[in-house]
Design brief:
The structure holds two protein chains of two kinds. By secondary structure, chain A is an alpha+beta fold. Chain A has 16 helices and 22 strands. The chains are: A alpha+beta, B mainly alpha. At the A-B interface, helix 4, strand 10, helix 7, helix 13 and strand 18 of A face helix 2, helix 3, helix 5, helix 7 and helix 13 of B.
């Protein structure tokens, strides 16, 4: 009996040893598989403030749609996590010709779209042609390819991209009409993600709607979109790339009310959400298991001058107004800790073109002196509106006298968390130097933007900008590259020298040259106080402690494949 | 009776045409261009013009109206400006959500409000009456977003008793038949979904019911008080009828007219969308949708939804009038003349 037992014991031990070796081998194999950590099956629930508009990123402009599409749709270049530097994506390397007109990109091999069709150079060409050519069958006339037009100069013959060719199965050559400094940054923008040609052709204009969603190459496949309820995305088991995080299911719960989003975070119904109300930040930080992190600010709040006002055409008056603003006080009173005051259009987090030497102090005494020098020793209580000729140019004709007005925005934005209160502070600063300004607004956001687009905000007006692609051409360049022509929406601002410099930076591919030009323009515009910059506001993000790692990006282009959960 | 019904039905046509025309004109008169709202801060004049052209906003107003009404009569309300989703399809998804919420809220309001009103009337000036009427006053006065957030905080966050986001947990599957999740889960025998849908429904429906509940309770009480002082009630009591029979058969039946009117009006108001309740509880109904569409100047949504709301009001009023006729023969006979 004892002998039998000993034999059995030995056999059992041998079997256990074999099983142990097998387990170790399996563990090693499994660990070596791409995306293994995500197989653990963590679900990341993000509280979305609204519905996506459409999940075809090529035809939308709103951040909510991009946030969803970004999780499954990938670009040739991707912003490196937490930065505005474009790095490898579906293109693993690239080079540009000496004249800056031809870019050659080497694509990754072995990637497939969610519908199983292969990703290759042909697919890339198809996507570029779809965006660029208005007679392309999938350049749906009912869709607005807004960003392509904005970033690449227009469609068809107006496009800076003149042709895109497949010069190998995994090599694409892109030819440009003129060199483009922001070319790589543009390719990394959410809207230029590569979609499956077969899927777009099959779905037609329904591509991107709740029935179809997106079909791309990324780590998460589209599962379901129930309007006003949720969007669900699931791990793409065949994902070609790396998976630093461990999330296998993403649910974006649509919760429009800020207080309800906070309650959902407290109740554990969501793991994270963007932009908690400022008054909730202390509550979140004081609650066990909850925390706030800041996304580096990538925006600017400014006060624009409408140059149809005769008095605002005088640099002395503009400088006086700029010196009168106590930016630090505004930032301390209305923004989160860590907010930067703004002295320039470009924010400090931009990769090139931020001029840290430009500083506008708060100096009401000098402001009063400048105002007196400009001929207004007793201050200003009304201003003169000038006429417009048939082409929309401001004339010398004095049309009417109106009170000095400062318009505040009717909605909050990350760059402007409390427009009316900030406006009240700004008006009080103006009163301090003798400018008797009235605080006003116009209707709702649509009406305000409409009035601004038509140059009808006759006075000073609040507005701001959030960058898209991390390049200064998309910041200061967006507003003033056409400044040789007065545009109503820019308050009829006109400066041919600024325009020429910005155009030079736009077409240069030499980083150092571009950096210098943007810094020079910032200095020029500050010397003339062409616009009054106020603050660069960081965006707060709220988390439960279920979220261990979330890499916040200045452009807001976070990919949830980076998220690590407990 | 049939004649009465047909006459009332025909009378509603000019009302609906008038509403559609008025909304259309008002929409185009208020400042704010949908193209600018769509393009945002990045709008250039050229793009605005292009988008206006695509949306048909550069045509004469009367032409736009006739194109819209012509399609609307065939059930085609166009596509949303933002996202290009067919409006009629989205309405089919959202309206059942609103109906489910509104009807549940009204059930709460009637089931609680009518008995409270009756008891307050027969126990006039008692403690019950005072407490009930104070409660009714409170119910009308408390802003719905305050009540909603309090409920969310205590019942949802602190006690974790009920969910407060949307209509169903995302991981629960339910075959959609009517779009009303409670009904659909019963029809498909999906008990898990039924439980989850009911849990989601309780808090928003209760929050939404407080105002109609208070109004119904107060109206029932005053209507009952008026009737209880009538001679025929005294006669009924003198005949020795039981108190319950006097109250329910003789008094309540005669007090029902104003109560039904108010229930009808409340149903109309609830069905036209409870913007705040839907927003706080992330309820995907038509109220919130309409509200958001107004700020974006999404004309097709605003036009279709307001027309639907007008239809609801007309239908509910018609229904109430028919109920009158059923309850009070005098109305029926005068209507038939």
């Amino acid at each position: 009996m004892m002998l039998l037992d000993a034999v059995h014991e030995e056999r059992i031990l041998a079997l256990l040893r074999r099983l142990g070796v097998l387990a170790v081998v399996l563990l090693v194999v499994v660990a070596a598989l791409p995306g293994v950590s995500a197989q653990e099956g963590k679900t990341f629930i993000f509280g979305s403030e609204g519905n996506p508009v459409n999940l075809d990123p090529a035809v939308v402009t709103d951040g909510i749609s991009f946030r969803v599409a970004r999780q499954g749709c990938e670009n040739l270049l991707e912003f490196e996590a937490g930065t505005t530097n474009p790095g490898p994506g579906l293109a693993r390397s690239w080079e540009v010709s000496d004249d800056g007109l031809t870019w050659t990109l080497q694509l990754v091999e072995g990637a497939t779209f969610h519908d199983g069709t292969p990703f290759n150079a042909e697919a890339v060409v198809w996507n570029f042609d779809r965006w660029r050519l208005t007679d392309h069958p999938q350049h749906f006339p009912e869709a607005v390819f807004e960003y392509y037009e904005a970033q690449f100069g227009g469609f068809d013959d107006a496009s800076i991209i003149t042709s895109v060719e497949a010069t190998g199965e995994y090599e694409v050559t892109i030819n440009l009409r003129e060199p483009m400094g922001a070319f790589l940054n543009n390719l990394a923008m959410d809207m230029f993600a590569i979609a499956s040609p077969a899927a777009v052709e099959a779905a037609g204009p329904a591509y991107g709607t709740p029935e179809v969603g997106y079909v791309c190459t990324g780590p998460y496949k589209f599962v379901e979109w129930v309007n006003d309820d949720h969007v669900t995305l699931e791990l793409n088991e065949n994902y070609w790339g790396e998976m630093p995080g461990n999330v296998s299911t993403i649910i974006l719960r649509i919760i429009p009310d800020t207080a309800a989003r906070l309650a959902a975070l407290q109740a554990g119904e969501i793991d994270a959400y963007e932009r908690p109300a400022l008054e909730d930040i202390d509550v979140i930080n004081a609650t066990d298991g909850l925390r706030v992190e800041l996304r580096p600010s990538f925006n600017t709040l400014y006060l624009a001058f409408n140059y149809r006002i005769k008095e605002f055409r005088d640099p002395l008056v503009r400088k006086a107004i700029s010196l009168a603003m106590n930016r630090q006080e505004i930032v301390d009173a209305f923004y989160l800790e860590g907010t930067n005051v703004a002295n320039t259009m470009n924010p400090p987090s931009i990769a090139i073109g931020f001029n840290g030497d430009v500083v506008t102090p708060y100096d009401p005494d000098q402001a009063k002196a400048l105002l007196a020098e400009a001929g207004y020793p007793d201050g200003l209580s009304e201003v003169t509106v000038l006429g417009l000729d048939d082409s929309g140019n401001v004339t010398e004709e004095e049309v009417e006298k109106i009170p000095v007005r400062l318009y505040y925005m009717p909605v909050t934005r990350p760059y402007n968390p409390n427009p009316e209160a900030i406006g009240t502070a700004q008006v009080s600063y103006l009163q301090e130097i003798g400018i008797d300004a009235q605080l006003e607004t116009i209707g709702d956001w649509a009406a305000y933007l409409d009035a601004r687009a038509n140059g009808e905000l006759l006075g000073l007006y609040q507005l701001g900008w959030t960058g898209d692609n991390g390049d200064p051409d998309n910041f200061i360049g967006y507003f003033f590259t056409a400044a040789d022509n007065p545009i109503p929406r820019e308050g009829f601002y006109q400066n041919a020298e600024v325009a020429a410099l910005l155009q030079r930076a736009r077409v240069s591919t030499i980083v150092e040259e571009r950096d210098a030009i943007y810094k020079q323009v910032e200095q020029m515009m500050a010397d003339n106080a062409d616009r009054v910059y106020i603050a660069h506001g960081p965006v707060p993000l709220a988390f439960r402690d279920t979220v261990v790692t979330y890499i916040a990006s200045p452009t807001g282009s976070e990919r949830f494949k980076e998220v690590v959960m407990k | 009776m049939t004649q009465y019904f047909i006459r009332r039905l025909l009378e509603s046509i000019p009302v609906l045409v008038g509403v559609s025309l008025l909304v259309f004109l008002l929409l185009h008169l208020i400042p704010g261009d949908p193209a600018v709202a769509l393009l945002g801060e990045r709008a250039t004049p050229e793009r605005i013009e292009e988008v206006r052209d695509q949306l048909g906003l550069n045509r004469p107003l009367y032409e736009q109206y006739f194109i819209w009404i012509g399609k609307a009569l065939q059930g085609d309300f166009g596509e949303t400006i933002n996202g290009r989703i067919p409006v009629s399809k989205e309405l089919r998804n959202r309206f059942p959500a609103t109906i489910e919420l509104a009807v549940t809220a009204l059930i709460f309001a009637v089931v609680l409000g009518v008995p409270i009103g009756i008891i307050s009337a027969i126990r006039r000036n008692s403690l019950i009456d005072t407490v009930s009427m104070f409660g009714a006053l409170f119910g009308v006065s408390i802003p719905i977003f305050v009540l909603g957030l309090l409920l969310i905080f205590f019942v949802g966050v602190r006690l974790k008793l009920l969910p407060f986001i949307g209509r169903l947990d995302p991981d629960i599957e339910l075959e959609k038949i009517t779009g009303m999740y409670v009904v659909d889960s019963i029809l498909t025998g999906n008990m898990k979904a039924l439980k989850n849908a009911l849990e989601h429904l309780v808090m928003p429906a209760f929050a939404l019911s407080t105002i109609p509940l208070s109004i119904i309770a107060r109206i029932t009480r005053s209507a009952m008080l008026e009737v209880l002082n009538q001679d025929y009630i005294r006669t009924a009591r003198a005949k020795g009828l039981r108190s319950y029979r006097v109250v329910m058969t003789h008094a309540f039946r005669n007090a029902m007219l104003p109560v039904i009117t108010i229930i009808g009006l409340q149903l109309g108001a609830l069905l036209s969308g409870a913007v705040l309740t839907e927003t706080i509880f992330s309820w995907p109904g038509i109220g919130k949708w309409l509200f958001e569409a107004i700020s974006r100047r999404d004309y097709p949504i605003i036009q279709a939804t307001t027309l639907l709301i007008a239809v609801i009001y007309v239908a509910v009023n018609l229904g109430v009038d028919l109920l009158y006729a059923l309850i009070d023969p005098r109305i029926r006979y005068s209507g038939a003349e």
